Each structure stands twice: as structure tokens, then as C-alpha cells.
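Quick one:
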Amino acid sequence: MKLRGIALLKKECVPSKNAEIIAKLNLEQKCALLSGAGTFTTRGCPKAGVPSITLSDGPNGVRKQAGAADHLGLNPSVPATCFPTAATVACSWDPALGEEIGRAMGEEAAAQEVAVLLGPGLNTKRSPLCGRNFEYFSEDPYLSGKMAAAYVRGIQSEGIAACPKHFAVNSQELRRMASDSVLDERTLRELYLTGFEIVVKEAAPKTIMSSYNLVNGTYANENAHLLQDILRRDWGFSGAVVTDWGGSNDHALGVKNGSTLEMPAPGGDAVRELLAAVQSGKITEADVDARLDELLTLVLDTSAAVQKHSRSFDADAHHALARRAAAESAVLLKNDGGILPLAAGARVAVIGDFAETPRYQGAGSSAVNSIKVDTLLDCLAQSGLQCAGFAAGFDRQGRPDADKKAQAVALAQKADTVLLCLGLDEIKESEGLDRVDMKLADNQIELLQAVEQANPNTVVVLNAGASLETPWLAHCRALVYGALGGQAGAGAMVDVLTGKVNPGGKLAETWANAYAETPAKDNFAGAGRTVQYREGLYVGYRYYQTAGVPVAFPFGYGLSYTSFAYSDLKVTADGVTLTVTNTGARDGAEIVQVYIAKPGAEIFRPAQELKAFARVPLAAGESRTVMLPLDDKAFRYWNTRTDGWEIEGGRYEVRVGASSADIRLTANVDIRGTNAPDPYAGKALPHYKSGSVKNVPDAEWEALLGHPIPQDKVKIDRNMTLGELNHSRSPLGWLIWAVLTALLNASFKKGKPDLNVLFQYNMPLRALAKMTSGAISMGMVDGIVMELQGFWIIGLVRVIYEAVKNQILNAQMERRLRND
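Output:
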């Protein structure tokens, strides 16, 4: 193989922005720069003036690892402020707060010499069971997009890059590196891409992370429709696209179709793949140059900002911001008889393991090594309340413990009010693992029932990063949802309980009565790789309100210690104006929500959709006129026949309310349409017209898709996952599968699933060549595939041959890159 000859192929046209640097590089150097050098570092080329930069996980705080780096958050990282998770801050409905948090995270990242902060996450919450929902904002793309755009503006105000993720349609953790998200184009555009569109157009992120999964049969990272047609052409994105870690399938196609940087460190094999692709004509040197221009812009801009930073930040100020953010995001879900706020001097019993060892963030790559962590017990000491004592009450992993329960009941009888801290334990919500249900552990519910019998004045403080079933709600007088409040979440909760802060948060996702009533239940995280988004547009409140399904707590719901009145509504096609009045005796903030509906629409649509919102702080008795603009997304829908955004003309109803189910004012507005043809003419779509999408028949689903339902079949190829090796024809494959399965089952039995084993179980074979820093080549993977196909001897011989070849070629390449 004449690598040097390939490296010296004639250069094609060079992009202008970084033309001077690109002209100094040969083709091999260019190709090398398009993949990482380490788990979180890029390659540099000092002779050409190209520095290496550091990327770091960071959706709710910087996770820069000090020693051995890994992508799952298993090894220690540098201390940083752990802010509330996205699922928490979304409940504030306050983009200005999000921007403050982003700015603080950007400052900490730059201080730690991190050039790219990998966040925020804004995937639409299709199912409440997605294990990573705590990292995502909402079931509504408009709310998600506005909050994420604010984070991006804040992070990038420090000169570094934000990296919104995961683009796109990444809704489950099971088989996340090999699953195929199958959905119709309208659902894709309206529900799963609108949030990203808002971020790109309103915040101009310097990077975007592509997702692991396929979208309609093509991996997201090499999907020309996503990366070229939509992201770059339609939205005008000019930044760099970064793969999720190990998320590259065909590196050459990724480069051709708009993927800039392959991470983490695939080694020399990835470089040779690009060189061979240019030589064969699969891609051109111009494709390489285009991606390199994007990468150099990112590297040079952010490197300069990092170099100028003082290397310090105000940790106390950031802790205070984290506390304020958690307090403003807390949601008061129940408050019978006004039991909250607690009166000064009230005698309280504190029960629940989470009061002593708080649950304040999710598990996986977002886990922050917090600078300090508040606990409810410590913060109560400063609150003016009297503490009658503490009892753990329950085993954190759900095991029955009669002694702990008895101690808690005895303590409850000694207090005026019980503060009962319940929630999900750490492993219930984690990257790499979807939840199995929406329930609190049985031992926690049994404790609640026993405590309430001992003391009816029971206040439940709930910590979880996603919605829960609440059949136990009648057993408490008050329920405060703190979500995952970050390192200062406990102090924030004390501020809310005592009335120092009036809770103003509202739910950013619907809480269903039961998982069985959720729209995607039959098509979420099931057997096989193909994930059918058969429910279409009807996710979250869009489903429940259109199909008439009762819920426990509606989207946008939240109580306050004061009350608000709405009046004087005026509506135009461009905006909504109204007066909001605080009619109570306490200062507070109301979140005004604007929903658009079109009764009698010809083009089917959800009953109503969020199109504007504002958080309005008001002193007791104060009135304020609020203007909420309606933008280009207010009345549009995606028309698959015209392949564009269209507007159905006619009369729309503008609904203004305190939640999706609490509409206070309505007005009509006439909108001029675009007179586009009906994309569904001649198609029988009764379930989609009614919103009753839980049992859509195959024929109707295919009519919406516009093509047959893809077949789901395990193939013995590079994309077979380790968890599918039982389908191979190799005893070695069966053995590996049996060992992994046994390890996984054992960890589940202990109540502590092993994230590393989980990742391996769901990892496709190709990732062996993407996640091992060059130790394994794709040629070796192909040898493994031959072994699994039943060519036992030939396969093993090829693995050995390719391993030797890989070592030699890697060493030769690294010498050339050092010397050139």
C-alpha cells in the first residue's frame, strides 16, 4: 500500500477560510485531523499551526477527566459545579436562567482548558422510560429548542463551543448504537427536528453532535438528508458535526455527507479509510477539505478563547446560581389546605434516605464530580425549622427493611409535619439503560402509607429525572417535585418548603396515570433493531389531549403560594398581548403559555400545540402587560407533497393558559394559507386524524410512511451487537454472549447494573475499531465477522493477519505525522 503516494495526491479546491493552513497539509495529515487523538482530545499539527483541543461532557456541568478518560463517567473527573439537569431547569420555563447557567458552565470549561462542552441535550421525550430523559428538556420541541438555545448562547459567550445533542431522533438507550428510528417526514420535521432548528437559527452553535442510531435506514452520522439537506442547506449551519463517541459507521460517507470529526480515537485505520476512499473516488479531496475547514474554524476560535482565560471562576457564586436555578425549577404538584409553606419554628420529622444522601444528578457521561453537595438535613439546620429527628425509612435499592420503616413511623408521630424524601435511585435513570417502569419502589410507597397513618401532615419531596406514576398521591397532603436539582438542590428545596422562594416551576412533560396509557408503549425499546415511531405526531400532551386520555398532571402544570388572574387578551398573527395580575398576598412568578389550535382542520394535527411562553415575575397585587410574539413556527406544518413548510389557511384559536389543561383566555385569528395540496388526499388515516394512535394497523402506518415497514432481521455483519452474538454461527460468539449476559444479569440482581457491560452488550462489532484507540482495525472486525459467520479458522487467521498489519501501519503513519 503506497501511503505516501496517496498522501501526496494533487490537492483539489481548498476552502477559503483556512486556505493558508490547509495548503500546508498533505492528504494524510488532513485525514488524520478529522479523527480524535484521545478519548476527549483532537489531533494537532504544530508545524501547520493547528493546536489540539479538549472536548468534555457537560450537559449540566463540566466533566473533564483528570486521569484515564472514559466516555461513561466511570473514572474520576476534575471538580466542577453540578447544576440542575436539563429536565429540571426546563420546569423553570426561563431561557434567561438557562443562559446564566450556560455562561457559568462555559466559564468553568474554559478555566479547565475545555474548548468544546458536549451539551445541552434536547432530544424530544418520546417515552417516559428513556433512561437518559434527565438530560433532555421536554416532550415539546418548542420549549426544548428555546431552552437549549439559551444554554448555547451562554456557553459560547465565553468563547468556547457548545455542542447540542443528539442529532437526531435518539429516543431510547436500548441498542442505541444499532437501532433504526423509522418515522414519517412530517413527524421528523415537526417533533424531532424543530428543537434543533431553533437552536441552530437562534444560537448558532459551533458544533452539533450526531446520534448513534440510524434514521430511516441510514446512520445519523452519514445521513445526507439530516446533515446536508436539513442541517446545512435548510438551516444554514456552518459549524462542525461531531460524532457521538464510537458513533461513526462509515467514516468516509460521514465526511462526504457532512460529519466533521470522528471521536473518540479510532487510530490509523480511520485515516487509511479516508485515504482509500479518496483514491477510489468514493469521496473527493474537496470533501476532506470542506470538513477540515469546519474543524479548523472550531479549533482555532475555541483554542484562542481557552488560552486567554484566567483559569479561575467563582465557585461560591456558581453554587448560589445552582441553588437559585433549582428553586425556580421546583414544581409544587399538590398543596392541600395550604400546608406549605411551613411556618417558622414548625417541628418537622425528616424521613427518607435521600435527605441524607441526595439524589441530585443522573448516571453516565453527564455525571459531574461536584465541588460540594448540599443535603436536606444540613440545610434544615439553617432554615428556622425545628428538626424532630431523621430516619432513613427505606433501603435505597428497594429491599424491604421493617426496622427502618418502624423507626420512621415512630419519628413521624413526634412532629407537626413530616418531610418524606422519596425518589428514584441512581441506577434507575442512567445513560445506557432504559427504565423498566414508571413506578416508585414498593418499599417507598409502603413507607409513605405507614407514615401518613402516623401523621397525616405528610409532605413528599420527590427527586427523579422523569415522570412517575402517582397512585399514592392521596397519601400525602403536599407533593413538591425537585427533579434532579444539582449540587445545591437540597438547599433550594428548603427555600421552597419554607416560603423563602415561592415555587413557580411547571412541568415540562406530562405525567401519565400509568405507563400502559402512554402512546409509544408498544413500540418503545422492544425486540429487534427497528424502532417504529408509529404514534407519529402524538407524543406527550399532543396525544393525551387529542385522544382524550386523562392524566395525573398535565404538561405545563404547577401550583404556587399565590394566585394569578389573566385578562385583556389581544391577538394578531404576529403576537399575543394580555395582562397578568398577582391576586394573592405573596410575590411570585407565573408561566404564561400560548397554545395554537385549529378546530376542524383539514390537515390532521394535535388538538393544540405550544407556540409561545413567558415567565412573568409579579409582586403581590402587581399587574403587568405581557407581549408574547408568534414566530414562523406558530401556524406551519410540514407538507410531504410539496416537501416544505406550509400553512393551512383559515381561523385559528389562540389559547392562553396556566397549563395545557388550564386555558384562561381564548381568541380567534384568521391566517392566510399557502394553498398547498393536501398531502394525505386519498389516504385512509383514521387513527392519525383522531389522535388515537395506540393501535395503528400496518396498512395505515405504511400509508403515513409512504413505503413498506422495514423488515427487522439480525445480520451477521459489522453492525451485529455483542448482545446478538447468540445468533452467530460460532461457539466463540456464543461464549462471549453467555459471559456478557451472565455478568449483566448478575449486576441487575445486585441492584447495580454495570454500565460498562451494558455498553458492551449493546455495542456493534464495528465499534471495536472505533473505541480502542487504534488497537483494533476494521480489517480485524471483518475477521471477527467471518468467525461469527462460521468460517472459524479463516476468520481467526484473518484477525491475526490484520492485527499485525494494523500495528505496522499505525507505527509507520504516526512516524510520518510526527516528521511531516
